[in-house]
Write a structure and sequence with these properties.
By secondary structure, this protein is mainly α. It has one domain (15-52). Helix content is 62%, strand content 0%. The protein has 3 helices and no strands. The chain has helices spanning 3-6, 16-31, 37-48. The N and C termini lie far apart (52 Å).
Length: 52
């Protein structure tokens, strides 16, 4: 057995609920349903009234 065969994939250790959230996020990315950093900053500034 080599070193790679002894290593476990961290994915196998994640709770199923977390795996589902990750998969949902990846599907959103594939659909283009994402926000840019600039969009998020603007929303935060408007909502909380602060400047970055």
């Amino acid at each position: 057995m080599n070193t790679l065969e002894l290593q476990q994939d961290f994915w196998d250790e994640l709770p199923e609920a977390l795996k589902a959230e990750i998969e949902e996020g990846l599907a959103d990315i594939e659909k283009g349903d994402v926000f840019t950093h600039e969009e998020i900053v603007e929303k935060m500034q408007l909502k909380y009234g602060f400047e970055l």
